[in-house]
Amino acid sequence: MLMGDSAKMNMKLAQRIVVLIAAVAVPLVVLDQSTASxxxxxxxGWLGDIDTYTKVVGxxxxxxxxxxxxxxxxxxxKKTRAEIRKLELEAAxxxxxxxxxxxVEGGTSI
Length: 110
Prior knowledge:
- The chain is mainly α.
- The protein has one domain.
- 74% of the residues lie in helices and 0% in strands.
- The chain is built from two helices and no strands.
- Helix 1 runs antiparallel to helix 2.
- The longest helix has 48 residues.
């Protein structure tokens, strides 16, 4: 069954949302399980666990940066490649119009 462009875009959006939810929810579940299973002395509440929360937030930010950064890099690469191809085509067109041997208007010989 063939999908249209809008269906493909909706599928990609749904996949990104699932990944985003997983990037936020999984570290929180792991954090909850790791703090429940350790037998450390009683801490001073959330302030005693600030290093763990910092690591979780850092991991989430890294995941989000990757999630949104990779598609942006791919788009920039495609745009750059298209611009290079356009310049190559323009250069080929100019070369085909110029005489092979002789002077060009600016006094430059080819």
